[in-house]
Amino acid sequence: ESEARGCGAKLRDLKVDVAYTSALARAQRTCALILEESGQTGVPVIRDQALNERHYGDLAGLNKDDTVAKYGAEQVKIWRRSYDVPPPNGESLKDTAARTVPFFERCILGDIRQGKSVLVVAHGNSNRSIVMVLDQLSKEQVLELNLDTGVPLVYELECDGRVLSKQIL
Question: Taking the alpha carbons of 24, 30, 34, 40 in that order, is the dihedral positive or negative?
Answer without folding.
Answer: positive
